[in-house]
Inverse folding.
């Protein structure tokens, strides 16, 4: 198992997965926060934070998992009231109608939570809704290996608005698909 770590997120990456942890450089006044992506297929360059450009490439045996951090203004809101990263998803957690881009046959979930004083969403896609029970152990193996380091409230966690534009910050971690 390979480990990737950046931006206070560390993950043991199961064999057969590709993983990256990055923080986009903001455009204009946008603030950006860390994103971790895990897939059982090669993640193409330019993939959107929630898998735009990647989930269309998934086969029926593939999974795609995202941990997307939100800004500190989300802390304490009802949406992020659940404490702790969900570690185990079951078949009932996966729906065929919650994907950001509905692709026939796929299923997914989006769960909001706070861990280590950091608000996140877990977004997971399975290549086959019909086979979700067989695919979820792969998703759960990723979730079991993730550690999120608490961030002190006083520490800035966003890339500052007005920073140089570009696709990614230099702090990125990638484990190539086997």
């Amino acid at each position: 198992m390979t480990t990737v770590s950046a931006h206070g997120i560390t993950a043991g990456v199961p064999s057969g997965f590709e993983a990256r942890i990055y923080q986009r450089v903001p455009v204009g006044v946008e603030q950006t926060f860390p994103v971790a992506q895990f897939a059982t297929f090669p993640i193409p360059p330019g993939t959107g934070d929630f898998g735009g450009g990647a989930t269309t490439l998934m086969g029926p045996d593939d999974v795609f998992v995202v941990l997307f951090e939100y800004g500190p203004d989300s802390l304490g809101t009802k949406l992020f009231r659940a404490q702790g990263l969900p570690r185990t998803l079951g078949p009932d957690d996966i729906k065929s109608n919650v994907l950001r881009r509905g692709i026939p046959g796929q299923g997914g979930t989006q769960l909001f939570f706070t861990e280590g004083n950091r608000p996140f969403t877990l977004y997971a896609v399975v290549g086959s809704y019909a086979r979700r029970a067989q695919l979820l152990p792969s998703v759960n193996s990723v979730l079991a290996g993730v550690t999120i380091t608490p961030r002190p409230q006083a520490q800035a966690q966003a890339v500052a608005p007005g920073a140089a534009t570009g696709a990614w910050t230099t702090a990125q971690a990638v484990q190539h698909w086997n």
Remarks:
- The chain has one domain: 2-175.
- The helical segments are 132-144.
